[in-house]
Amino acid sequence: MFTPEILEKIKKSKFLITGGAGFIGSNLVEKLIALEAAKIVIVDDLSTGFIENIQDFIPLPNVEFIQKSITDYEALLTAFNDIDIVIQLAALGSVPRSIDNPIATNAVNITGFLNVLAAAKENKVKKVVYASSSSVYGDDKTIPKIETSTGKPLSPYAVTKKANELYAETFADVYKMDIIGLRYFNVFGPKQNVKGAYAAVIPIFITNLTQNKPCSINGDGTISRDFTHVSNVVYANILAACATHFVKHEVFNIALGDKLSLNELYQTLEGEIKTGLSPIYLPKRIGDIDNSQADISKAKDLLHYAPVKTTNEGLIETINWYRSKSIMHA
């Protein structure tokens, strides 16, 4: 999967992961530990992440956990000292959450992001990789989505991710920093939070079906997404972190490069879990785009990225993970 050069770089590098106790972050930390990274610093305020996601990692000699928010600039200045690579994953996710509370979303996703870039600049961090989002495509009708064609943002969350890309490009140009943005497309997999009002559709569907409860679909179910297993996103982050051939800010779509409607997703999950239940259809949510599918050719060409797990493989693995968790907590 990784070249010998990348594996060697990982072993020599000191990583800092913001949002490292979250869904994607904890999966990334686990992979970096397996690849024997020299040091891994996790910064997370546990507002949306969970200590359970990283509790097995914290005692390790090359892992350090700092419970701070990216809104705390002074804390970041200290934490980023002697760090080679920062991977910025901390954010308040969810389009509906941003519509309900745009001020909190702005404070973390824009001001917090600016703090990360500024702290990285002051500490002369060699590389910053950050999480952008497919939401930046907004009302653009192009399918599949290509990095050079974005539309009008449809939610405060999308605005924050677009602002992240603008700030990253400016910092790269003005301060000569090496910064890469990754536009994630509907990531799913183990450790994704199923609780709360802003949980993602796949963990909700799996949890409800395994408990023989009906599932709700917003809209008529024809809305499609490029559902992307977290292992693909982890792989892309490491490739971006270790890339040495960029001299300016770049953004990449990170996805499977395919699409699945909500109806097809439900049918796939129900076919695997076998409840016989039919979904309940609700009104479409404000801020949701109709269709999303990524063109991943740029990431393939420049990052040498290729998905390591298909959607169906990822769904089966994720079902089994949630089943194991329910058995453990029964």
TrEMBL record:
Which Gene3D superfamilies did the record assign? NAD(P)-binding Rossmann-like Domain, UDP-galactose 4-epimerase, domain 1
SUPFAM superfamilies per the UniProt record, alphabetical? NAD(P)-binding Rossmann-fold domains
Q: Would you identify the family this protein belongs to, as annotated? A: Belongs to the NAD(P)-dependent epimerase/dehydratase family.
Task: Identify this protein by name.
Answer: LPS biosynthesis protein WbpP
User: What is the phylogenetic placement of the source species in the record?
Assistant: Bacteria, Pseudomonadati, Bacteroidota, Flavobacteriia, Flavobacteriales
**What are the NAD-dependent epimerase/dehydratase domain coordinates in residue numbering?**
16-255
